[in-house]
Amino acid sequence: MVKHFLKYKLIGLLLLIFLITSCNQQNKESKVEEVKNYDEKGKRIVYNEDVYTEMWRKNKNLDVTVIDTFCINQKARAIRDIKNGKLIYFDFHPLELDKMARILSHYGIETQEQLRRYVKITGFEPYCYEFEMHREISRKFGEKFIDSIFRVAQKEYILENPNEEYIEDGIDLREKYLKKK
Length: 181
Description:
Keywords: Signal. By secondary structure, the chain is mainly alpha-helical. It has 7 helices and 6 strands.
């Protein structure tokens, strides 16, 4: 009977030691988690726009460190795509987009319509993938490449639609491209 008592006492002691070390381990993990949530100056680190926005709603004088993981990941994806030979032009020119897509395809550039938002949240860049693609297109083909392609597409559109007004900077561009005979 004494042997059984000692056996259970030993099992109980081992169980108690296991529980204590488990609690200490959880404590260490939560401290590591705390370290990840605050920078070296003690400022809270915010990784995404939703969390930032929610915090800002509660405190308009928000003082945090922003690490934009979405942008970091999008930039890395764009660099991978570029290395694999993929180039995409993003923009919103509803009238000329099809014509631009046709012209850019001759240069191996895909085209996607991009609808931009007008609200930018402090510290976050929503168009990192698009920016990297634009930068690579400019590097590879020149700074004025897209502008010149746009002008060609714009002229084609006006010539194909002579009865539609096409106002830019207060001037109807039909006067520029349509010659009266």
